[in-house]
């Protein structure tokens, strides 16, 4: 803002802001919320376009999230550095940035130009801060006529404050939602454990029944263990609390560790495991615990969705400067029409409930972890023959 006088907002702008505040506070679905915020920002400041970048506290960078005129949703998640972008500058200084000819500013990153094919002329960026925590940046570009004014800056600042709180609420809601889902998921295995325990109390049960009950308790408890770990990891990731500790480590011992965890189940199902990790592989630089979690999920699936007496194969090789880790099984495979949704939260291929207990969170979590490492996860499958998951991770330079 220039000068010391606080500009007075037109009355209808106040009315619009008030109505919006109510609207935003009631929107708990994050994508819808962000879409409403950018629409309102563009409208209120009479700009050609507006966008939101969310702050990623782990990587200390902004990620492009939503824009008013974005045709290609794939552009989501595009990274914008804190240094060397006007949005980053607004967040670092914790105050609005206004530019008349942004494209000629050395700090202009031009991400919105590239994403929306609009050349940025004038730009107004306000930081989104809730409870002193940086949430992201709201940007308006190209005032329809003239330059952005003090009043525009004031309006976007007020909108930004409301937006930041609403985004934080939506995130908290997401977490509460996850907890509700966890409670729901925990009920079935707990019920099975209770039933088995009650059965064990009966004096007249036969030896096979007794063994069955104990097996059930063990199986369900294992599943509960897997489930709670997955949920905790996911909650940490989604709320941005997860921390990644990068270290150099060899893949082969990690693979052995993971396979060892499943020794009992592998034997019980009569499966054979083959590992093919070349000894000359350079070390990985990643969060070992998180990569272990990914492998655990993939091997767990290869065990669960396999045939009796089937095979599991873990291999690794270099591919274009990346490391590919593969986990293959000889299970039922996954039909092409289901593959697209495999990595979505809570998604399970129809009929999976009959094969094994599961929440449909494992692969979603794998994808999140792999992507946080700048990697990629893919699936290849031949129905009736088996499935191979491929994890691609950048190798140490
Ligand atoms: N190796 C596999 N073979 C066949 N189907 C699989 C395999 N891995 C995963 N799937 C399918 O993908 C779904 C999602 O996997 P995941 O997220 O790990 O969930 P969960 O293991 O809890 O079922 C599974 O429910 C299953 O339908
Ligand atoms: Mg799984």
Describe the structure.
The two termini are 46 Å apart. The strands form 3 sheets. Strands 3-2-1-6-5-4 form a 6-stranded antiparallel sheet, sandwiched between helices. The protein has a 5-stranded mixed sheet with strand order 8-10-11-13-12. Strands 7-9 form a two-stranded antiparallel sheet. The model has no long low-confidence stretch (mean pLDDT 88). It has 397 residues and is α+β, with helices and mostly antiparallel strands. α9 (288-304) runs antiparallel to α12. It has helices spanning 11-26, 30-44, 86-93, 111-116, 150-201, 207-238, 251-261, 263-268, 288-304, 336-339, 352-355, 362-372, and strands at residues 47-56, 61-67, 79-81, 97-99, 123-130, 133-143, 247-249, 272-276, 284-286, 311-319, 322-329, 376-382, 386-394. It has 2 domains: 11-172, Beta-Lactamase, CATH 3.30.450; 244-397, Heat Shock Protein 90 (2-Layer Sandwich). β1 (47-56) and β2 (61-67) form a beta hairpin. The structure holds adenosine-5'-diphosphate (ADP) and magnesium ion. The site of magnesium ion (MG) has 5 residues, from α9. Adenosine-5'-diphosphate is lined by residues 297, 301-302, 305, 329, 331-332, 334, 342, 347-349, 352, 358-364, 387.
